[in-house]
Design a protein that fits this description.
alpha/beta; five-stranded mixed β-sheet; 13 strands; Alpha-Beta Plaits; homodimer; TIM Barrel; 2 domains
Chain lengths: ~375, ~375
């Protein structure tokens, strides 16, 4: 008998998968996933003892919501996840990501795993405090378009801030480009927002994009903080979820983080594969330390359904021990006329993200921003 | 007129997308992608001049392979990609990843972009030299299952190496777990392989998995090298493509890298979305510095088709300037009887990856490995 149980706590975490297939196939796929996600070894070749008894995944529940859709909860020992977000994600969906017809629906993580993560540093309450917005929804816009000079982008940031936009972020396509070098842009934009704040008394913040080289992200974050940035836009699909966690947990940075979905959409574009909106943009993004999760609102220029958007909000707020709830930040083609409907669906705990739409309301960006803010404050 | 052209070289890179929709919709989607992937701004709001003329994507070609399938090549100025793999991937598929019915088919990158990357340090020729295998296909296996002690895994590594397996890698589920701490495992396995090499004269190498925290990957890589590891297994879907590039380009490491597809499968599980096998496991993996690209062979326990596997081989070998060709490494349920058929399809420039199947051939792992090697050498 191969014994390792003295090293195991006996505690397990759970992942609920949705299998799209016949019931019989789904039962087989669930058994396969128990091996595929752990030992990657034929069951009959495993040494008898603790490896098949504990290390291998176990089917905790199986229910069919239709002839072709089956929800299966598997459990794995917490020790498989190795105190590490990368390995936790690997345990959740490493090899299974390569198999069609299986989708991660939700995670149930015990305190022994949650306790390994700080989660969002600010969360909803902390961000509200920092932005001096105790009750109302918050406003976000992006400086754009790509190709503009740092000076012109900073002028845009200044106008947004004068008008009362709370979070002014880099468009996610802004990087370290010849027409807009990172350091120059960040310094000018942060300065512009500070200047506006001094005039308005608002507490707007500027968030530069940290879609950057793995060996430069941290130094760029520090440069940005030293030069007055008030937070960071981070695309975990491009830089890795654990890089976002690292930025969030860094006490020498200690600034709010907004997650951007660039490059990661393929996880949700097929309903039968990948990861659910709830788990990806909600639970995983949150566990990785983001204080706000950007996603395309329904009815804009992307294709998320209203139900999918609601599920993101639920994943952003569901109880996860000490891991704070974070703000859903729907965007992607938002216009002023969507506000009432969005408030009704999301409630007040959200960040409105309006990009291009904000340029059409009034003759100047300041007026448009003021109009947007007034409208939201009155609701 | 908004002028930035003095800062632009005029050179553009191309991405070919496949749109699944009617022809009319595809034409609209292609125009949308030109904006979505760059300025994220309504065309009528752009300042006239160089931004619409150069920064915005341009449709270079449009061809329909059926009523519902359209290949569209878009071009972007090389400057949009900001000398940075993260931003290059963002330009290729940032926001478009969130839209269903669009798939990245292939990349055409000019020397001004390719020149920013070292690519694979070894590539096919370099790895052949290092493994003393000038002509034959190479053999790879994984130490497993998860749950085994470092000592037992090292014993497995020893037997594989004695039998002539060229690359002995960690199973990708092995991390830094209580039952197999990284440092202890790496030291013992590297030592075991060195001991076997001293007996056989072979040049087998041990590759630990670097699926680890963003702030620990580099130190783990250095620890592994100092303790005799001969390469690294890296899962770019979990740690980020740019982290793999960083490891590959680090002259103080200078060891071969094998890319593992964990967590990244969702990019290819739906035929209408994500990234093609060719671009993802071929071109992008290679640009990110891997010397070998692991993927599930057709007919095993995953679902890639023979054509998809061939396309990965093509992406791994297609001319890309100084970026070296790399080894397709098909695995995922491989057995001995597949060898002739695989040789016929892939040719000799490949690495056979056999895991569980290697445990069934002969009474001991040494004998099984020897049998596998003899068989391949004879072909």
């Amino acid at each position: 008998m191969y014994t390792i149980s003295p090293k195991l706590s006996g505690e397990r975490f759970q992942v609920t998968y949705r299998f799209t297939s016949t019931k019989q196939e789904a039962e087989q796929k669930a058994m396969d996933a128990c091996l595929e996600q752990t030992v990657e070894f034929p069951a009959d070749l495993l040494p008898p003892g603790d490896i098949p008894d504990f290390i291998v995944g176990q089917v905790e529940s199986f229910s069919s919501s239709s002839d072709s859709t089956h929800l299966v909860t598997l459990s794995y020992p917490v020790e498989n996840a190795g105190f590490d977000l990368v390995q936790l994600l690997n345990m959740i969906f490493g090899n299974s990501s390569i198999k069609p017809g299986v989708r991660v629906e939700k995670l149930d993580l015990p305190q022994s795993i949650l306790g390994q993560f700080k989660g969002p540093r600010f969360g909803q309450n902390g961000l509200r405090e920092r932005l001096d917005a105790p009750i109302r929804p918050m406003l976000c816009s992006a400086i754009k378009p790509m190709g503009m000079s740092p000076k012109d982008l900073a002028n845009q940031a200044y106008q947004f801030a004068l008008g009362g936009i709370d979070i002014i972020k880099d468009d996610h396509g802004l990087a370290d480009q010849v027409f807009s070098p990172f350091e120059e842009r960040v310094a000018l934009c942060a300065e512009a927002v500070a200047k506006a704040n001094a005039q308005t008394g608002y507490k707007s913040i500027y968030m530069p994009s940290l879609g950057a080289r793995a060996d430069q992200i941290q130094e760029k974050a520090h440069y940005a903080k030293q030069n007055g940035a008030g937070g960071f836009l981070v695309p975990p699909g491009l830089v890795g979820f654990d890089m976002m966690r690292l930025l969030a947990e860094d006490d020498t940075l200690a600034l709010p983080i907004m997650a951007h979905p660039a490059f990661i959409g393929s996880f949700v574009t097929s309903p039968d594969n990948g990861v659910s909106h709830y788990a990806l943009f909600g639970q995983i993004t949150r566990l990785s330390g983001a204080d706000a999760t950007v996603f395309p609102n329904w009815g804009g220029r992307f294709s998320f359904s209203k139900e999918e958007c609601i599920s993101i909000m639920e994943g952003a707020e569901v109880s996860m021990g000490h891991i704070k709830p974070i703000f859903p930040t729907p965007g992607g083609g938002m216009t002023i006329d969507r506000i009432p409907e969005m408030l009704e669906v999301y409630g007040r705990d959200l960040i409105f993200l309006m990009g291009g739409g904000l340029h059409r309301i009034k003759p100047t960006l300041v007026e448009s921003s003021q109009y947007f803010r007034d409208l939201v404050e009155k609701m």
